[in-house]
Specification:
flat, 5 helices, 25% strand, alpha+beta, 166 residues
């Protein structure tokens, strides 16, 4: 009889104590967080460099992608779209010449390490009468950036091959 009273008392305390308890909603896992923006929806870095993912998951060449990020890393990034293969920087002025600024847009359009798989656009603005005025594109800088990206991608490929040989 005493045991049944204790069980009844414990049950009453537990049911009373738990009746006001609200179970919080579980936190949803939003997936990887972008290292660039800090927002959810990013892609794990391991996906970029695993050989299986290069042929299955990533629609652009991972070496060109990584090389592009390396080359434009001196400019703050505005937008990065891994699956669309585009990198857009913020406007950037050299500390020595603040009357001109550039915005770089890089497109990776292929899965192979080829010169036609990368395209760079450099937009130029000049500061005149308290306004930034579009001045067109810098085609020479665009070609130089594309060459730098290709060179960096080849260096990355070479270092990967050397690492696997050792």
């Amino acid at each position: 009889m005493k045991i049944s009273r204790y069980i009844l008392v414990v049950f009453a305390i537990l049911s009373y104590g738990c009746s006001g308890f609200e179970n919080p909603e579980p936190v949803k896992d939003e997936g990887p967080v972008s290292i660039i923006t800090g927002e959810a929806g990013g892609t794990k870095l391991s996906k970029f460099f695993s050989e299986a993912q290069q042929s299955d998951g990533m629609p652009v060449n991972a070496l060109l992608w990584r090389a592009s990020l390396d080359v434009v890393s001196f400019v703050p990034l505005e937008d990065v779209d891994t699956f669309g293969g585009s990198i857009v920087t913020d406007w950037y002025s050299l500390p020595t010449d603040t009357s001109h600024r550039i915005k770089i847009v890089v497109f990776i359009v292929g899965r192979e390490l080829r010169s036609d798989a990368v395209s760079a656009r450099v937009y130029v603005q000049n500061f005149r009468t308290n306004l930034w005025v579009q001045s067109g594109r810098d085609e020479e800088l665009e070609r130089n950036l594309e060459d730098l990206i290709l060179t960096r991608a080849r260096e990355l490929r070479s270092s990967m091959i050397e690492a696997t040989v050792e």
